[in-house]
Design a protein that fits this description.
The complex is a heterodimer of chains A (314) and B (364). Chain A has helices spanning 48-55, 73-83, 99-109, 116-122, 138-150, 168-183, 195-201, 219-225, 245-249, 271-285, 299-307, and strands at 8-19, 22-33, 37-41, 63-68, 84-87, 156-160, 187-192, 204-209, 212-217, 230-236, 254-260, 263-268, 289-296. With 314 residues, chain A is an alpha/beta fold. In chain B, helix 4 (80-86) links the parallel strand 1 (73-77) and strand 2 (92-96). The relative contact order of chain B is 0.11. Classes of the chains: A alpha/beta (314), B mainly alpha (364).
Chain lengths: 314, 364
């Protein structure tokens, strides 16, 4: 067995978990360095939550090996719990309690950590301290859940879809709080199906599909790995005058062409040569151009390239 | 391999951190119990069912089934002289009527007796001697007339009225309601709180924290004890103040019975809530279990009314044991040793349900 660097915060080896006849996690390997923010990306049902809950010691794997902060759940559960901050997907905290009472309750479970008012201030809920949880907005509830995860001053923070269902402003607010925690050098494992979230917060991401890892790397590496940095999206042609798609593939610098809901998506290496060439080709075919957009490739494009599906198709 | 742990980031900065406050209020068990308590008192419906409802029920039934004072009997007379004499008797309501009307009133049962003058200063009583009211009216009327005419009793007598608390319906009812309340509040408070927390994935969140799991359970029992004191005191205090229901047994025994009974029902509630994932499922299960006991365990009427064949089963129900023991303590002043069978049944349910619940319980 190869010697593993002592600063790995999480090691997952050949993890497998099936529910009845559905295989949720199918032979997954992961390794997180201490201090990094790692993103597990994938559509709903990819096995992200199952993976995270096994790492959190909440679910027993069918087979495979998990080591968190150098310790195993089977032998060091009580110690591990003290060092982890956990935010589960859609937990509803008790609505009749106030923000302060909730944080104070969770604080009482940990041997160390900042006192409740300080943690509440850190997630910017000071003004809501005396409010009932039932009266909070979605974003405030998520920040409270984050406070409950941070209250024990954890070395390792698990966030399972922390911003799902939030409006853009609430998401940005939460991102800032997570970035703040990142600054302190602790480890984060985050699941999301938002590509922008992973690109902004994560040092490295693993893309999961059907319980397997299908890509791993920094967001930049993954985008570069599709061999195309730029995306061109356009609509052209009409019912009477159809577009000759195969002809587009012959344009220089075009890596891939696919059509989607009547629009054409092209991966290109260089915009400044490919776009004029595209326009020339359209002129040659005599098809009118109705819309043209270009953007840098994103993790979303990586996922579509790898699976042929969009992340939020389900 | 096992000591290849990452250095604890916090260890380096541990000295910078203020030491953890060690006040009792920061203990997880205290916090969990407080939270239980807050959740309960912030639920107005629960407050009503646990505190107000049994008292309203006791008041309503106590008034409906109160012991009425001795009834006043109606009699008719035809002359003012006789009426004068008879009005001395407070238990008679005397109506002076024309003789035709008096005959009519007697015939139709509006009066129990008709007193009319006979020949040579005598009095004639006309009444139905098969009717107890008629016989009672006759005795009262005759005594009043003889007294007014100057009769003196050879032996002087006095009355001692027996309207003893302890044998009335309200006395039977209060321990029954107390037992029903112990069952309802324990099963509902355990059942709903646990199933609701499971449904909201709050149970899962709690076990993801370092909370010691047995503290979660203990917090339910502790908050139950707190509320139990209030519940029992409210119902017994109400019975004692308004209806003078006595408490003849030892208060310590009574406290032990309430605690043991309540914990048996907590164990039953925990068992019922050990798997259910929705409030609907849990509440169906709880009603199925509690309904037979509401009917058969003798809350409102004696369980002896059921056929002998069913008695062993009825006696084995936890609520029957609790109510029988409460009645024995409150009304007969029995001590715990005399209630050994009931105490044994409660302990059996407590241990069995608790053991099963621990085996079946799911945190998610």
């Amino acid at each position: 067995m190869p010697e593993i660097a002592s600063n790995s915060a999480l090691r997952v080896h050949r993890l497998r978990k099936a529910y009845k006849d559905v295989v949720a996690v199918d032979g997954l390997d992961l390794e997180l360095q201490a201090g990094e923010c790692f993103g597990l990306l994938g559509p709903n049902g990819a096995g992200k939550t199952t993976t995270v809950e096994i790492c959190e010691g909440l679910t027993e794997p069918d087979s495979g090996d998990v080591e968190v902060l150098g310790q195993r759940w089977s032998s060091n559960a009580a110690q591990l719990r003290q060092r982890l901050g956990i935010q589960l997907q859609d937990t509803q905290l008790s609505e009749k309690l106030t923000v302060f009472e909730t944080v104070r309750l969770f604080r009482s479970f940990f041997r160390q950590g900042a006192e409740a008012p300080e943690v509440i201030a850190r997630v910017q809920l000071e003004e809501k301290q005396k409010s009932r949880v039932g009266d909070l907005s979605g974003g405030q509830k998520q920040r409270l859940a984050l406070a409950c995860a941070l209250v024990g001053d954890p070395d390792f923070l698990f966030l399972d879809e922390p911003t799902t269902g939030l409006d853009p402003q609430a998401r940005r607010q939460l991102w800032e709080l997570i970035e703040e925690f990142k600054q302190s050098g602790r480890t984060i494992l985050l699941t999301t199906h938002y590509m922008d979230e992973a690109e902004r917060l994560c040092d490295r991401v693993a893309i999961m599909d059907h319980g397997r890892e299908i890509a791993l790397g920094t967001p930049r590496e993954l985008i570069a790995s599709t061999c195309a940095e730029q995306m061109v999206e356009f609509t052209a042609g009409s019912a009477s005058k159809a577009l000759d798609v195969p002809a587009l593939r012959r344009i220089e610098g075009v890596r891939e062409v696919r059509t989607e809901n009547g629009a054409v998506l092209m991966q290109v290496t260089e915009l400044h040569t490919s776009v004029p060439a595209l326009l020339a080709e359209l002129t040659r075919q005599n098809v009118p151009l109705t819309e043209l957009r270009t953007h840098s490739a994103t993790l979303e494009d990586v996922f579509v390239t790898l699976t042929g599906r969009h992340l939020r198709d389900e | 391999m096992s000591d290849r742990a990452i250095p604890d980031v916090r260890a380096k900065e541990a000295d910078k951190k203020a030491p953890r406050g060690t006040s009792l209020a920061d203990h997880p068990l205290v916090q969990l119990t407080l939270v239980r308590f807050y959740e309960f008192i912030r639920e107005p419906e629960a407050l009503f069912w646990v505190f107000a409802f049994p008292i309203l029920l006791a008041a309503g039934l106590g008034i409906a089934f109160r012991n009425r004072p001795a009834e006043v009997l109606k009699i008719a007379v035809v002359t003012p002289e006789i009426a004068q004499s008879l009005r001395q008797e407070k238990l008679l309501e005397v109506q002076q009527l024309e003789s035709g009307a008096a005959e009519e009133a007697l015939r139709t049962g509006k009066v129990a007796l008709l007193a009319a003058p006979g020949s040579r200063g005598t009095v004639v009583y006309r009444y139905d001697d098969t009717n107890p009211e008629g016989r009672a009216a006759h005795m009262l009327a005759d005594r009043a007339i003889q007294k007014a005419a100057g009769r003196v009793d050879p032996i002087s007598t006095s009355d001692q009225l027996m309207r003893e608390p302890g044998s009335r319906y309200i006395d039977f009812l209060i321990p029954g309601l107390l037992g029903m309340n112990l069952m309802g509040s324990a099963i509902w408070s355990m059942g709903f709180a646990i199933v609701d927390a499971r449904r909201k994935k709050l149970l899962k969140r709690l076990v993801a924290s370092p909370m010691p799991r047995h503290y979660f359970l203990l917090s339910f029992l502790l908050s139950r004890i707190l509320l139990l004191v209030v519940e029992v005191a409210a119902l017994l205090g109400f019975g004692a103040l308004l209806f003078h229901v006595p408490i003849r047994g030892s208060l310590l025994d009574l406290a032990v019975l309430c605690l043991l009974g309540s914990f048996s029902f907590c164990a039953l509630g925990l068992l019922l809530a050990s798997r259910a994932k929705t409030i609907e499922a849990a509440s169906g299960l709880m009603n199925v279990v509690m309904m037979p006991m509401w009917i058969a365990s003798g809350v409102f009427f004696s369980s002896q009314n059921f056929p002998g064949l069913m008695q062993p089963f009825i006696k084995a129900l936890p609520l029957t044991a609790v109510i029988d023991a409460l009645r024995a303590n409150i009304l007969q002043g029995s001590n715990l040793a005399q209630m050994a069978p009931q105490v044994g049944i409660m302990a059996f349910w407590l241990v069995t349900c608790f053991a099963l619940a621990l085996k079946l319980f799911r945190w998610r």
